[in-house]
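Example (one chain per record):
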Amino acid sequence: MKTLLKKLLVPPHLEYLALDKEFLIQETSLKVQRFADCPEEVAAGNDVRIPFPELVGSEEILINIFEGRLPNFELKAITRVLENGSRLYFDMYIVEFNNDDNYQRLIVFFEDVTDRMGLEQTLVQATNEMNILLSTLAATNNYVEKIITSMAEVLLVTTATGKIKKVNQAAQDLFGYRESELVGQQIDALAAVGSSLQAVSQEGPQQSQTNAEVICTAKTGEKLTVAFSCTAIPTDIKGISGSWAAVQDFVYIGRDVTDRQRARKRKIAQYVTTRILSASETIKKAIAAILPVICDSLGWDTGELWMPEAGEKLLSGSNRITAVSDPNLLRCVASWRKRSISIPKFAEFTETMTCAFGEGLPGLVWASGSSQWIADVTESDRFLRREIAAQEGLHGAFGFPILGDYEPENSARSVLGVMTFFSLEVQSFDEELLQTMATIGSQVGQFIKRKQAEIALRESEEQLRDLFENATDLIQSIGADGHFLYVNRAWRETVGYSEAEIAQMTVFDIIHPNSSQESLDIFYQAITKKTVNEKTLYPDSIQAIFITKHHEQILLEGSISCKLAEGSLVAIRAILRDITARKMAEDALAKSVSLLQATFDSTADGILAIDRSGKIVTFNREFVEMWRIPNEVMALRDDATMNAFFLKQLKDPQAFQARIESLYEQPEAESYDLLEFQDGRFFERYSQPQRLGDKIIGRVWSYHDITERKQAEDALREEQEKSEKLLLNILPQAIAERLKQNETTIAEYFPEVTVLFADIVGFTALSAVMNPIELVELLNQIFSGFDLLCQRHGLEKIKTIGDAYMAVGGLPEPRADHAEAIAQMALDMQAEIARFNASHNKYFSIRIGIHSGPVVAGVIGIKKFIYDLWGDTVNIASRMESQGLPWRIQVSETTYKLVADKYLFQERGIIEVKGKGKMKTYILLRKK
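Predicted structure:
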């Protein structure tokens, strides 16, 4: 051992053993035995596994350390129970030792760790107790968390300043936010505009519970009514100085009472509506009260009532009878909105718009007969006012029908109108609200129908009273004693008695004995003999003569009947009409008819009258004679035979028949046409409908023989056409028309025209040797060709002077291309002379001069009118011709500049022009 100690420096708190490869003890430290299980076995030469059984099974590890494959091996916290019952804890470390003398051993070190193990056990025990406490706390927290999570009520925990610290799942589900979106936010972020959640915590003492209902806004924008209770929770927080400060958190427990509140509001709306309907005198007053009640009680911002024109008339209370232009159009007839909102554009557009079946929200409700809901009108394609609603902030909407009576033909109740309501907020679908509104719609519909019936009854009574009082007929009711019970205004005014006088009279005081026997018998049997009963028969019509207050006799005609009650006479009622004037008119009419028939037969025109079906009603004698109808045809009295006879005489029978048929299709039309007969005669035929009041009962045809007049008119027309043609050959048409309007002097200034003069070279010399008639014939052929060219180019021929020809472009109708047209005319005139020479074997040449500028044109004098030109432009054009060359077209510089871009010219140069001096001229060659 000393040898090993010399080589090992072992700390004093360690003991050791040295082992060989056979695990036999070679050396030991002094106190190593106290660690052995069998201390007495700790001796040199003994197997180390006997005193230290812990090494049993670790032989392979020990061999690996010997052979250098493992650096060391250790066993910790080995326990020995000592004789006194105490425990010894030690650690065992095994390493290999080798020196230069090939001395190799396993060294086993032993360290007493009893004190350390005691501390560790104490620490472990404390740790275990802490873990138990933490586990209990975690379980408690988990339990509380499960309670919070499973709560149906909303739970919110906030700081004293209102910042959210904790929310449960119910709060997330109700408001639609995730926990991460709520934690850290102010609690008032959940409150709707005008509401405050934090104010709930300020209402009571700090340690007491406060309760309040708060309007909240979900993430979707939906308004929710939540009943909150708020409790303060004290929390102690250790400050920097080490002192503890009392801080309060607030716990809000909320319950969603939206459905309960909505149900309460729906009941209030229905109750108040019922009260309004029961107390309102008119439909207008009821609607004016119902719209704000529904808006205020249910939280909507504006309401409207839509009705067709018939409903609008009913709402206005008007008794006027008006035609409904389109019963399938709805109009907004009443509306209401909160003072706090401003929607002027929406309201203005609503006042002017109409809705048809299925169009817009009102039209959709009207067509379907059921309530409709739109969560957000700004996203609905079917909402007509979507853009305006978006501009003014309207979103939610619903509508419900006002239902009337059941209509069997439609298998549904009629829709009297539609109510629509709007909100500034997006509104989620509320089935219960629509059901309540449907009930209210039925109540309003029943109210309207009841008011309609009351109005109809009142109007019927008023109309009946007005009918009696305003009737032109005489209406009277006579009691069983013969006294008058009632007479209307027409009766009083016609007979002339006052109401006081009538009260003292009987019917026998005013009825004349010469009245019809039937009327006298009825009054006698009813009043005197009392013999009338339910089986008494009354004549369809009676005539009676009444004596007026002024002792005049009036003839009355009408009907009479008796009113009986339990077999006794109650009243004799009569409706009579004063036919005195009619009787006189009938007599006068008979005289008029007689006179008319005499006139009808003696008129010079043939007249034929037919009914609506085309049957002949009557005709006069002149008609028979004009159409030369034989007696045998007249005797037949057959329309078809007579019509066939008519058609045979006409040149165009088809047109005759077609005209008649067209008038059957247009019974109100009047007609005039001319009939031409095969024998040369002409008839004017007039036709117009025959009316009886506003009703067309037939047609009257009038025939007038104009054969002689037609012949005279044709002759006159022929002469007039000749005169017109002659005048147009002399003058332009516009000028001729002005002369026909009796204008005596015509002169107009034209600022831009082009004048052409042409002269046939050598024609004057030819006239001395040629027959004048032949000469004129040749000249006529040439100038006729020039006339056609003028007509083709739209130019105006002015005149011919001998063999000279004058034409102008740009008048009497101004034209921009006057110079171009004259230039082309000049080239064509050269071609025309060449053609004439070739066809007549002649050798005429032509000299043409052209100039452009202003002229005065017109007609002067009173005889032998001629349309002529005056001015310097005419003179220069004449000089261009007279000082030109044969077969050449000489133009002035002015004309050249107007057409130089379209025609090819040759410069002639400066020439001396009589009266103008030197002028530069050009020769027109051809078109470019």
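Caption: Residues 318-324 have pLDDT under 50 and may be disordered.
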